[in-house]
Amino acid sequence: MKPALTTVVAAVTMIAALSGCSPTTDVIPLSNSQIEQVQEQLEGANNPGVRYVQPNDRTALPILSGFDLDGAPIEIPDSQKQVTVINAWASWCPPCKVELPEFAQVAKDPEFANIRFVGLNVNDALDAAQSISLGQGYTSMVDPDGEFLAQIPNIPPQGLPSTVILDPNGLIATTIIGAVPQGELATIITRVMQE
Fold first, then answer.
1. CATH code of the domain containing 92
2. How much is the pLDDT for 78?
């Protein structure tokens, strides 16, 4: 049991004991789905910008077709049926620059070799974006006027940085508005990989 969940269970038990409730007659056990909901709420409380979407509630990402920073055609999602991480960023965005090294590190990790990483460079100067993207280890789509970012469901049209993780079917499994909590990217991606 996760430490935060243990704390919640202990608090509920203590309140029940103090209010005179008997565990054998008044406490209703939680089902597995209720426990998962509590865990998700606790995770959301620790990472308020991170939203996990239940498989039955997922929507498809519209197909985004454009060009990468080198002028080559690129499409998101592609037809490879793989988990895809899309990170919207710009060279002028300080929180974006803080989180980019973690994206580069995770993208190069052999554990995530089957994950597609794609940047979405929004409202940026091409030369500045190209210089920052050199060490990323993955390509970025150019979104010069924010048109592609505005098409992503549940992401603010000017929300930088933002990250979307697609499941293998191209459905939105996770959205992150704002910077990814430091050191959490691999854990967040792994959750989608393990479904």
1. 3.40.30.10
2. 82
